[in-house]
Design a protein that fits this description.
Layout lengths: L5 E4 L6 E3 L12 E3 L2 E2 L10 H4 L5 E4 L2 H14 L4 E4 L15 H10 L4 E7 L5 H5 L6 E6 L3 H7 L6 H13 L3 E9 L5 H15 L5 E8 L1 E2 L4 H7 L8 E3 L5 E3 L1 H15 L8 E3 L4 H8 L6 H15 L4
Parallel strand pairs: 1-5, 3-6, 6-7, 7-8, 8-9, 9-10, 10-14
Antiparallel strand pairs: 2-3, 4-5, 11-13, 12-13
Length: 313
């Protein structure tokens, strides 16, 4: 059932946190701006469903403290910082009622040392379209096959609705990114993901896309039985417990899926715009032929992609 209860309170802790990453896997190295917890889009695979299962949605009220912490953090750092707000919630879930970006976007837009990525599955873009400052801002959509969107992303807008929203944001002057994560192995998965990618680039200008990520389904052991009980699709295929403690598809299957989807993407974007989310250096080599990939190298790859689009240090 969709959750509509929202608790608003003052955050007395830190707003900025490093991406937690996962042991033995390569991380994109972005910094989280934590302003809300929970999501009501009902995606069956999402860890937020299980971490915040019996809690209402939580929203921080002290926006001015958040802005001050971001500005102070930036003033102490002397390198490019990539921020994101979509770790503990959907970035735009509250945007029609909580005007955090009215002030956060102008703050980041007026710097030359930071970008802000908002990751969403919603079409909640009305406030974004009214904000005039758009430099250094990336609006991202999580995408999947139509089958997965309809059956596993219960209350989220359809894939075509998300693409339409991305098109409107693009036409308003924002840069975009897209995340195929989690990629889920299912009947006719190849045709499903190809259809989504082709539909995406019928509307989206590849030159406006900063980067695209790929990541396959992964989950902690404590939710394995819950996932299997509520979704036949998510338990399709064989899983193995990785060094980070999470269950993942076997490496040969992950490699095959990534290679196929990468080839679909290469019809529209250059390879250096594509990256893997939370994967091992061995899978990076399998898919991209890059030896000894590391978090440092991935950070450089994404920083370069951002500098290509924005006037940054």
């Amino acid at each position: 059932m969709i959750k509509n209860n929202v608790v608003v309170y003052k955050n007395k802790g830190k707003f900025i946190k490093p991406c937690p990453g996962t042991p033995g896997h390569i991380c994109c190295g972005y910094m989280i701006i934590d302003f809300a917890h929970g999501c009501n889009l009902g995606c069956t695979y999402c860890i937020l469903n299980y971490y915040f299962k019996n809690k209402p949605l939580e929203l921080y009220s002290n926006i001015e403290d958040l802005l001050l912490e971001v500005e102070t953090y930036l003033n102490k750092r002397k390198k490019l910082i990539r921020f994101g707000t979509g770790e503990f919630t959907d970035s735009l879930l509250f945007d029609d009622v909580h005007p955090i970006y009215d002030k956060l976007i102008p703050l980041i837009s007026n710097r030359n040392d930071a970008i802000l990525e908002l990751k969403t599955k919603t079409t909640n873009i009305q406030r974004l379209l009214k904000i005039k400052e758009r430099n250094n801002i990336i609006i991202s959509w999580s995408l999947n096959s139509d089958y997965i969107a309809k059956n596993e992303e219960i209350y989220a807008p359809s894939i075509s609705e998300r693409i339409d929203a991305a098109y409107k944001v693009q036409e308003a002057g924002y840069r975009l990114s897209f995340h195929f994560d989690p990629i889920i192995y299912h009947n006719k998965w190849k045709e499903g993901y190809k259809h989504t990618i082709d539909a995406l680039f019928k509307k989206i200008n590849p030159d406006r896309v900063v980067y695209i990520s790929m990541g396959t389904l992964r989950f902690m052991p404590f939710i394995r039985d819950i996932i299997r009980s509520q979704s036949k699709t998510l338990s399709y295929g064989e899983f193995i417990k990785g060094i980070d403690g999470k269950y993942r598809y076997f490496r040969p299957l992950r490699t095959r899926v990534y290679r196929e989807i990468k080839e679909f993407l290469l019809n529209y974007v250059d390879e250096d715009k594509i990256y893997l989310c939370m994967e091992s250096k061995d899978v990076w080599f399998d898919v991209f032929g890059i030896k000894e990939m590391s978090t440092r190298k991935l950070v450089q790859r994404l920083d370069t992609a951002c500098r290509r689009h924005f006037d940054l240090i």
